[in-house]
Amino acid sequence: MTVTAASTPGEPTEAELRALDAHWRAANYLAAGQIYLMANPLLREPLRPEHIKPRLLGHWGTSPGLNLIYTHLNRMISRHDLDAVCVWGPGHGGPAVLAGSWLEGSYSDTYPSVTRDEEGMAKLFRQFSFPGGVPSHVAPETPGSIHEGGELGYALSHAYGAAFDNPHLLVACVIGDGEAETGPLAASWHSDKFLDPVHDGAVLPVLHLNGYKIANPTVLSRLPEDELDALLRGYGHDPLYVTGDDPMAVHRAMAAAMDTALDRIAAVQRAAREDGATERPAWPVIVLRTPKGWTGPHEVDGVPVEGTWRAHQVPLDQVRDNPAHLAQLEEWLRSYRPEELFDEQGQPTDQVLECVPEGRRRLGANPHANGGLLLRELPLPELERYAAPVDKPGATLHEPTRILGDLLEQVMDDTAERRDFRIVGPDETASNRLQAVYGVTGKAWQAATLPVDEHLARDGRVLEILSEHTCQGWLEGYLLTGRHGLFSCYEAFVHIVDSMVNQHIKWLRTTRRIPWRAPIASLNYLLTSHVWRQDHNGFSHQDPGFVDHVLNKSPEAVRVYFPPDTNTLLATADHVLRSRDYVNVVVAGKQPCFDWLTLDEARGHCARGAGIWEWAGTDEGDREPDVVLACAGDVPTQEVVAAAELLRRHLPDLAVRVVNVVDLARLMPAEEHPHGMPDAEFDARFTRDKPVIFAYHGYPWLIHRLAYRRAVHPQLHVRGYKESGTTTTPFDMVVRNDLDRYRLVMDVIDRVPGLAVRAAAIRQAMADQRSRHHDWIREHGTDLPEIADWQPGS
Questions:
Q1: Which HAMAP family does the protein's record reference (predicted)?
Q2: Rounded alpha-carbon distances, angstroms, from residue 572 to 397, 398, 526, 607, 663
Q3: Which of 142, 335, 701, 752 is the most buried (most CB within 10 A)?
Q4: How far apart are CA 304 and CA 708, in angstroms?
């Protein structure tokens, strides 16, 4: 429901404060127990070495602060009947979030064997950071999580992604002060300039400053408060401060801050939704300052621990071997008075659960944190409405991404009411030829506008910010909460999110093994403005290596496509937008490209993933070809078709087979990738022992790596991008990298037995053309007329 103002304003009662403190102490006890104990979970007997885990793994330092936030979010949700989720940003905060989930019962609902009693508590403790158990950070296995805690920087962008188009959802987001130092987090503070108070939900950031990272102080914790305040207000937020180390005082202050934050959010939404306010609001942010490792050991071996970096991980080690440490651990655990918090069966007492919400309102049970439960099929139009007519291969040209933009415009229109599809990108939607979508929706924008601005809209569903990290985080949060989307990006700069896509792929791989996680819509990349058509921007914009990076990851979760023309792009887009639980990378050009296949042919080609183009070669099929010209990518395809024409003209007796690859994983063996080809099928297309000249869009060694087990691999020669780039003409880019049609013909002559002598004059003519090209572009600044005006079959 929409956030509403506090129905019972004022400070919490003493009884309520005691209940909050009981829940917090219980969560702290459970967090510490997970790090240390494998038996005797309620200290029914004196602690002995055999009760302690042999390897102490986990992070205590952030846990008390996270437990405090979980406790007070429970109060806030119960008090206001909120629909809320939380993104837990601090790395390795798993003990706290698992403790909160176990206390509220959502953990036992999800994992029935981990019951909410003494036996279940023992299992909860033992499984943590233990072989066959669960990770030390908030992970896919954690109920209520949409954010992988193992890597820092993305919590706030994930939170905003979850809030977009979720008008009744509150997304709390805990930002650790170590995470706050990262570039992605710093940029994502600007997400409030894109959040529409009418159609989107609210994000409540909680900046948790406990002072230290692993070994060093944190920047924001050492800023003077007025400087920190100015920074947050400059980001567009209205800060609320909670500071201290006295538990009851902090509970009182935290409850007041939460109530005030909700009142401010309610006022913002009411002003926008009921009164028509259009000015950009100042959303609240809570700044929580508590000691690192709060309530843990003050000192160990005479050295300060609580409130220092030493509390970051395991504040007491050698517990099995050091009797003094064992005694101090027992004293620490008993300081929470577990006998007051858990009954004889080990179940949380009524006081501990007094402020805990019920059912789907619990943070560990909210369906938005298991977005596949809410996912609806994306309405996709019939492709025939957008298909390029193809009477003859190569007779016409279209800009593939522009046609795709027409299709996406219809998708935007068909989802206008339900609002569950977004396009994100770093200021490149129009540059990448997708601007047709502006006929239906604008670019989300809450900041100031000028008369010269175009396509800005408060309720826009295109998200553009010149931070690839923020785009990625927004889309991940959007998908993980049950929606659909597309990330459009210049090929060279998508590398900026290499590390983020790693984590998302790992998340997907893990969730495939978790039965209660429902499949979500795939993360779809459209990479365009690619290496072969960045001749005008130069070397800095020329890098096709994202595909290499992605194909290093779990084969079950990654797919890479190189549609060679418009209709194949349409068929590919239709496929990936319908898919679930993948990261799909689609590399396609935005410049005019020859139309090779009809829509029906394109669909068949996509289904095969790699196919023989009989019309392009001279292979009659009654014998094995003398050579195979293979290609993947739009420009390599054009050069291969042109090379095949040259061979047909100059060496008409040569049997040339052209194979186009649209699904790169087809090159892999079937046992290595679900899309991999069996050897017999691969050999039928590529032969076992004939020369294969492969023109590839990216770095050549990737093709060798994918195909190294194939029988034909010793005969495989790959041409692709080899870091030879500059500002030049389009054809010079392929010449510089030896991917041009003339070089391909020379490769055929060099590698087909008997041709080196017989076709020496032809080879020399090809080399002369390359030299002529070199001189021509330096005199005229344009490509040779026979290149610029070339048309297949002409």
A1: Phosphoketolase
A2: 18, 16, 11, 9, 10
A3: 142
A4: 57
* Residues 211-253: tens digit of each pLDDT: 999 999 999 999 999 999 999 999 999 999 999 999 999 999 9
- With 0-12 / 13-18 / 19 or more C-beta atoms within 10 angstroms meaning exposed / middle / buried, residue 213 is buried
Question: Smallest Cα–Cα separation from 38: which of 128, 166, 162?
Answer: 128
- As a whole number of Å, the CA-based R_g of the chain is 30
Q: Are 598 and 627 in contact (CB under 8 A)?
A: no
Identity of the residue numbered 304: P
List pLDDT tens digits, range 767-785.
Answer: 999 999 999 999 999 999 9
d(CA 200, CA 580): 24
Question: Buried b vs exposed e over 422-455: b needs ≥16 C-beta within 10 Å?
Answer: bbbbbebbbbbbbbbbbebbbbbbbeeeeeeeeb
Instruction: Tally the residues of the chain.
Output: 794
pLDDT tens per residue across span 390-436 = 999 999 999 999 999 999 999 999 999 999 999 999 988 999 999 99
Q: Is 245 left (phi over 0), alpha (psi -120 to 50) or beta?
A: alpha
- C-beta separation of 359 from 104 below 8 A: no
pLDDT category, 10, cuts 50, 70, 90?
Answer: low
14-36 and 63-80 helices, crossing angle to 10°: 140
In DSSP terms, 128 is beta-bridged to: 134
Helices 566-578 and 400-414: crossing angle, nearest 10°?
A: 40
CA distances in angstroms from 542 to 334, 428, 778, listed in the order given: 61, 16, 21
CA 714 to chain centre: 37
Q: Which domains does the chain have, with CATH numbers?
A: 19-365 (3.40.50.970), 383-593 (3.40.50.970), 611-788 (3.40.50.920)
Would you say residue 149 has pLDDT above 80? no
| pTM recorded for the entire structure | 0.96
Place of tokens 């992970």: 139
Cβ atoms of 1 and 83 within 8 Å: the answer is yes
The b-or-e profile of 160-175 (16+ CB within 10 A means b, else e) is: bbbbbbbbebbbbbbb
If one counts every other C-beta atom within 10 angstroms of the C-beta of residue 103, the result is: 25
Cα–Cα distance for residue pair 137/126, rounded to 1 Å? 15
What's at 307, amino acid-wise? G
